[in-house]
Structures are given as C-alpha cells and as structure tokens.
Design brief:
The chain is 61% helix and 14% strand. It has helices at 2-22, 32-57, 64-144, 148-165, 174-189, 208-226, 280-291, and strands at 193-198, 235-243, 246-254, 260-261, 267-268, 295-300, 304-312.
C-alpha cells in the first residue's frame, strides 16, 4: 500500500504536469526546448522527493512526528512544483512581451524605410522637373543648329530616364500612389517586368496606413522572390479592383518554387536580406487581413507564386 500510494502520487503529479503543458499554450508562451526543460526539471523534483518518501515509508516506527514529517514533505514537493510553475509562467509572459516589443520596433523600422523610399522617389521627380527646362534648352539648340539626329538621341535618353526613375501610379489616393510608385520603380530597377490593373472603389473601409503597409509588404516579397531568378524570368502582376462586393488584391510573381513552412503548415518567408525581419512581413499581412475581416489565400506554384486577398466593401456608403 505504501509503494502503491507513492506511485499514485507520482502519477497524479506527472499527469498534472502534462495537462498543464498541453492545455495552456496561451499561458506558456515558450519554445519547445523551454517546455521540455520545464517538464524534465519538474519530473526530477518529484522523483527526488518521492525517493525521500519511499525511504521514510519503509520506517517501521509510526509516530505523530513521522506523519508531520510526511505532511511536510508532501507540502514541500507541492510548493516547489508550484514555485517552478509560477517562475516559468512569468518567464513566458516576459518572453511574450519582449517578442511583441521587438516585432513592434521592427515594423516601425520597416515602415520608416518605406517612408524614406517615398521621400526619395518624390525627390527624384522634383529633381527631374527642375532639370526639364535645361533638357528643353539643349533640345532647342540641337534642332536650331540642324542636329536633328543628335536631338532624337537625346530625346531617347530622356525617355529612358523617365521610364526608369519615375514609374508613376495614379489612383487618386496619394499615400497609395506614393508607396506603389516607389516600390514599382525599384522593381523596374531590378529588371522586373510589370503588369498592373488598379482601381480602388470609393467604399473600401481600410485605413490608408494599413493599406500602404499591406501593399508594401506584398510588393517587397514579390521583388525578393523575383530577384532570385534570372533577369529574363522576372515578372510581376498586380490587380486591385472591386469583385462581387469585395475589394480584390491579387499579386503574382515569378518564383523558384522553393518555399518554407512552419510547424502549423503556415507559409514562412524565405528572405535573406534582413534576418531581423524574418517572418514579420507575412505576419503583418495576416494581421491586417484579420483586422478587416478579410480572406487571404496563398498559391505557391513551381514557377508562379500568387496571393489573393478579399476585403468586404462598405455597402453603407
């Protein structure tokens, strides 16, 4: 009976540990290694205490002090286990808080770079506008002096410069125009062929800030994937339009067909440019889609990767 009692006690503690680990994933925000370490430490603690119990239970003399000692050992075992549990709980909470803080800082840095890209793109346009009068003056002189072939060459150079540095998107939504112009200009700089069809309805209910963040992350991922391929294979297609009382965002890009998946089957980023932002882009995309009750579908093909997102439109407007 003594040994059986001890075994039952060990079994109850072990069952409690397993249940605590398996059914509290929202409380224990820990990695797999941390959970395994916690389980091992708890088990060792219980086994050590139980060995002491077995030694005591083999005693032939039963006194009141013996039972008090027995009660003390049971209480100490429970106290140690609860103490470890509280410690791990607080450790998990701190880890969760730090992870959120790091993610928030990373997102702010990413959006700061996006704003910098917009400013640089706008600055390039202003510089070009400032120089246009000089270009016109040079063309006038060339034509006036009968150097028509030189004038045509000069016009060709200006035209290439316009296509390369000022790929302009005009939707009527200034923040969207700025971010898409900056991103697509950079895509052109990387020799990516672009096709787009963009029309925003008046009754979409997504904030411009979230929409800019969403589109920016999608285009960054598409550019990153294209840049892994030969220049002749780089393609990017963008469709933003109303579709069955929904706002459709569809982006497809050329791909090498290599993808990474998490333990839950979710798609992970394969970016190599900045390890600190690993996975943040896709996570941010999913957060925005969920925030506005949208639907997202990834289609990772062998040569083409596409993303389809649907947002409900505001029919009250």
């Amino acid at each position: 009976m003594r040994i059986l009692f001890s075994l039952i006690y060990i079994s109850i503690i072990a069952l409690f540990v397993i249940i605590f680990l398996l059914f509290t994933p929202q409380v224990f925000v820990l990695g797999k290694l941390d959970k395994i370490s916690y389980f091992i430490i708890s088990t060792i603690c219980v086994i050590l205490e139980e060995n002491v119990l077995i030694i005591l239970l083999k005693q032939s003399i039963y006194t009141e002090n013996f039972f008090h000692l027995l009660l003390f050992i049971f209480g100490l075992t429970l106290f140690l286990f609860v103490y470890i549990s509280i410690y791990i709980y607080r450790l998990g909470k701190e880890k969760e808080k730090n992870d959120r803080l790091i993610q928030s800082i990373t997102i702010n840095q990413m959006e700061a770079r996006q704003n910098e890209e917009i400013i640089n793109s706008t600055h390039s346009l202003r510089v070009f506008k400032h120089d246009i009068m000089n270009h016109m003056s040079i063309l006038y002189k060339l034509v006036e002096n009968g150097k028509n072939s030189d004038a045509l060459k000069y016009i060709y150079q200006i035209n290439n410069s316009i296509e390369r540095t000022s790929y302009t998107i005009s939707t009527g939504i200034i923040p969207i125009d700025c971010i898409m112009t900056a991103k697509l200009s950079k895509a052109l700089d990387n020799n990516i062929s672009i096709k787009h069809q963009i029309h925003f309805p008046a009754n979409y209910n997504i904030s411009d800030m979230d929409l800019c963040s969403l589109i920016s992350n999608l285009l960054d991922n598409a550019k990153e994937a294209n840049c892994k391929l030969d220049m002749t294979k780089r393609r990017l297609q963008i469709e933003i339009k109303p579709y069955n009382n929904m706002l459709l965002l569809f982006i497809s890009n050329s791909s090498n067909g290599i993808y990474l998946y998490g333990g839950n089957g979710n798609l992970l980023t394969t970016k190599t440019s900045n390890k600190n932002e690993h996975g943040i882009g896709i996570k941010r995309i999913n957060e925005i889609v969920k925030k506005y009750n949208g639907i997202i579908e990834f289609d990772p093909g062998t040569e083409i990767f596409s993303v389809s997102i649907l947002f409900p439109l505001d029919n009250d407007n």
